[in-house]
Amino acid sequence: MEFKPEEVIKVQAYMRNTFGNPNIAVRPRAQDPGSIEVLLKGEFIGLVFKDEDEGEISYDFNMSILDIDLPSV
């Protein structure tokens, strides 16, 4: 299911507001119009997928965290 331009803007505004960070940006992906990339200060951090089920649309944010990025304890 493809993202409409106005949805991309709304998702970006939602993420910036929810996480309290104006440095979050989203952009469409040419290879998969059913998802958008999420960037923080220009660095890729995850994907948002669009899903429709029984007429309701939802968005799923998927963020992978590499073990090498985790702090030592």
How far apart are the termini? 42 Å
How many runs of DSSP E, i.e. beta strands?
A: 4
Strand order of the largest sheet: 1-2-3-4
Give the count of structural domains. 1
Mean pLDDT: 94
Shape: globular
The amount of helix comes to: 10-25%
Rg estimate, integer Å? 13 Å
Weakly predicted, low-confidence segments:
none
Order of helices and strands: HEEEE
- Assembly type of the chains comes to single chain
Please work out how many helical segments DSSP would assign: 1
Strand content: 35-45%
Main sheet attributes: strand count, strand direction, barrel closure: 4 strands, antiparallel
Q: Structural class of the secondary elements? A: alpha+beta
Compact overview of the structure:
The chain is built from 1 helix and 4 strands, in the order αββββ. The chain is α+β, with helices and mostly antiparallel strands and 73 residues long.
How would you sum up this structure, described in words?
- The chain has one helix and four strands, in the order H-E-E-E-E.
- It is of the alpha+beta class and 73 residues long.
- It has one domain (5-69).
- Strands 1-2-3-4 form a four-stranded antiparallel β-sheet, covered by helices on one side.
- The N and C termini lie far apart (42 Å).
- The mean pLDDT is 94.
Question: Top keywords for this entry?
Answer:
73 residues, alpha+beta, 4-stranded antiparallel sheet, globular
